[in-house]
Amino acid sequence: MKMPVPDQGVIERRAEIIDRLRAIVPGEGVIVDEGELRAYECDGLMAYKQLPMVVVLPQTTDQVSRVLKTCHELGVKIVPRGAGTGLSGGALPLADAVTLGLGKFNKILEIDYDNRCVVAQPGVTNRAITDAVEDEGFYYAPDPSSKIACTIGGNVAENAGGMHCLKYGLTTNNVLGVKMVLMTGEVIRLGGKHLDAGGLDLLGAVTGSEGLLGVITEVTVRILKQPASAKALLVGFPSVEAGGQCVAKIIGAGIIPGAMEMMDKMAIGAMQKFVDSGYPLDVESLLVVELDGPKAEVKHLCERVRAIAEDAGSTFLRISESEEERQQFWKGRMSAFPSVGRISPDYLTMDGTIPRHRLADVLARMTVLSEHYGLRVANVFHAGDGNLHPLILFDANEPGELDKAEAFGHDILRLCVEVGGVLSGEHGIGVEKRDLMGEMFTEDDMKQQQRLKCAFDTTGLLNPGKVYPTLHRCAELGKMHVSGGRLPFPDIPRF
Amino acid sequence: MGDIFKPESETQVLDAVKWAVSGNARALGVRGHGSKDGLGRPLQADSMLDLSGLSGIELYEPEELVMTARAGTPIADVQAALDEAEQMLAFEPWSPEHIYGTEGGTVGGLFAAAQAGPRRPLAGAARDHLLGFRAVSGRGEIFKSGGRVVKNVTGFDLSKLMAGSMGTLAVMTEVTLKVLPKPEKARTILVFGAPDPGQAMRDAQNSPYEVSGVAHLPGEIAARSSVSYVSGAGTGVTAVRVEGPAPSVEARCEALRELLAVHGEVEELHTHNTHALWREIRDVRLLPNDQALWRISVPPTDGAEVVEKLWGDHYFDWAGGLIWSTQALVDSERVRGALKGGHATLMRAPDDVRASVDVFQPQADGVQALTDRLRAGFDPHGILNPGRM
């Protein structure tokens, strides 16, 4: 993984930069000791590590603004960071950059039930928002599996998803507003407690921008009333194809379940070994389908899904009889990552999305790749929306195995793009998939995206080396090269 | 008016933009059927790019909930294809028919104007259903963004920017949209004469019964409805729509009747009347169409206070968060002065009026500067629908 060459001039000025930062954020808010910096050397993508030049932990928007303004003046790069749970290396430090942690922004500022929203600082965890409102029967819908640890600011930066986004949307569909600081130190507000933008939808563009456009210091999210009831079905199939067919038929019948997860045999075995969720071991694919809403609806839809599943050739089917059982069905799936961690010393988590009907084909080709690389792969799949998480098992202590696992992962993502899918469904590009962007986008596609970057951050100092394999200079991107003053193709119908 | 180009391929769109950028035209108007020419600042362009020839659904996979269509595809064609598969555009776009007295409309125009209706709070806006697109920028470059899958965080989400950009920034040539199954059944609970309509709307919106529309019509507006239960009420009518599988709709209607009874007498509309009423609400059919029309988005609790400062006719959608308001005279400062947060769009007014006031909500300085830089990035010469936003 090639990162931008560190600017030695900046590294030599480290002491001066630290002094300037200390003048803004007093006391322990500026971290410089190697031992303490170690805690920030990577995010959830632990294969890549780099000690930051310095870490700053501001507490107010004003401090963030002054930190950015100062770094802008000094030409120092900034890497924003939430809880560091991201899986694509978006918060990977740079040797010549200040890592700006938002962990101290940990307060919920306002709960407004009447307008169904919560205003929170970016360091509040995803789960803490639901915790704060659940006594009144509300919750925050996007539920990435790291929800206990990941922060709402990071969720906005990555456009985080989760199990329930099939029905309730991703972060982008649940964010109403942000306050953010641009690289120049300028503070802006986008959105609020109302819906939609009065002009261009900049909020939509900022969501999922992986810390390249600005530093978010306040977030307004929409909360929803908890569904009155929920049941889960556990359905096993003798083949992956049959499981995929069942998913297509459920949606084809006009049913959008609250969640619909699928796993393959390797994943089922790992999960059932880790925690007893009642998963059958003699099936090739297993679905967990959750239906939520009023009791009458849930009962009705459970029967319809049961009929569809049987029609699709299910060989195992249970409907949860109690809330405890529903949670038990989920236990295995929820612990997918630690389960796989138990059967392999290391694993890489992939995150492509594919058109659902290509599932069987993609899994078959993945089996071929698995044999080619000599590495095992377990699949968990947000089946309803086509988001595939192949977990590649390897042993980092075996020389060359990480490289092999990465090459395998890249082949999987290329396959996802080839069948009409995308490189990342919810984990982001970061550094992990950066060099694969060309598989999906042309140079012109990426230039257009970078013009958005230039409007927010002309200097390119904010989180460089992430998302785009080549970050063009804004001045270069601004130039126009149009050839031919005449209409080259005179055959356009013209009136 | 100079040249009118009617391209039939993306390459021809590219050629026309390049031709304009090379100094042959100061401005290129971008339009589909022109059904919403009345929205935004009046167009001042010496040449026109008519996208209606760029038509056709290229991909529709109902089980995958996805459709790709060329930008100039008539909405009617999209609608017909969706009807056949019992699917819909869940954001419930309004029709220009009553607002502008026009017919037609293209799928590109639908997203360019970000048309969304009563189901928006539940199902999302147009921007939430635009999965990807192809376009030609004002620089004369073909580019694409997004994809055909719902879950996608690969690169910046330019679809959000394009939705609602009114043909500025870039010329969309193809859109890929998320579609959803039509609900099996729809009903509406009516509450008559609620003393505090805002509270009645919020009680419904904040209930666990997944309502898909919450509106309030003051008495004189309700009286204009074609639905006799509404027009005959003789008082303000709060309407709450419930959609879904039959047993679920029945259970939720019963629960809502009980919940809302404290606000007034309760009545229930079945499918046919439900469709009729919500079409009136969606398409602004209950307000006069010969006056200036405002569309105002505010935090729902602000709604009541805002309308006290307005004049003319109005009604609420989005549980109070959306106000449609007609006025004989345009006073944008007074309308916008009534808002504490949110935004007001002047949806309809004579050309000379729209040429002289801000049709879209003026932005804070920093956001405006950002918007200007963004426009300069996509369309440095300002040739695409200049001034329209």
List keywords for this structure.
heterodimer; A: 495 residues; alpha+beta; Uridine Diphospho-n-acetylenolpyruvylglucosamine Reductase, domain 2; Uridine Diphospho-n-acetylenolpyruvylglucosamine Reductase, domain 3; Alpha-Beta Plaits; 4 domains; 8-stranded antiparallel sheet; 5-stranded antiparallel sheet; 19 strands; 35% helix; 19% strand; B: 389 residues; 3 domains; 4-stranded antiparallel sheet; 15 helices; 18 strands; 24% strand; globular
Outline the structure in words.
- The complex is a heterodimer of chains A (495) and B (389).
- Chain A is built from 18 helices and 19 strands.
- Chain A has helices spanning 8-12, 14-24, 34-37, 61-74, 126-133, 152-158, 165-168, 202-206, 240-252, 265-274, 295-311, 323-334, 336-343, 359-373, 401-418, 437-440, 443-456, 474-478; strands at 30-31, 54-56, 77-81, 97-101, 108-112, 117-120, 138-139, 175-181, 187-191, 215-222, 224-225, 229-237, 259-264, 285-293, 316-319, 346-349, 352-353, 377-382, 387-394.
- In chain A, strands 12, 13, 14, 15, 16, 17, 18 and 19 form an eight-stranded antiparallel sheet that branches.
- In chain A, helix 9 crosses helix 11 (295-311) and helix 14 runs antiparallel to helix 15.
- The longest helix of chain A is centred in the last third of the chain and has 18 residues, at 401-418.
- Chain A is globular.
- The model of chain A has no long low-confidence stretch (mean pLDDT 94).
- With 389 residues, chain B is α+β, with helices and mostly antiparallel strands.
- Helix content of chain B is 31%, strand content 24%.
- Chain B has helices spanning 10-24, 75-84, 96-100, 107-112, 120-123, 158-162, 197-205, 219-222, 228-231, 246-260, 271-282, 303-309, 332-337, 351-356, 365-378, and strands at 4-5, 28-31, 47-50, 57-61, 66-70, 87-88, 130-137, 142-146, 170-178, 180-181, 185-192, 213-217, 237-244, 265-269, 292-297, 313-317, 322-327, 343-348.
- In chain B, a hairpin with a 4-residue loop joins strand 16 and strand 17 (322-327).
- At the A-B interface, strand 9, helix 8, helix 9, helix 11 and helix 17 of A face strand 1, helix 1, strand 8, helix 6 and strand 10 of B.
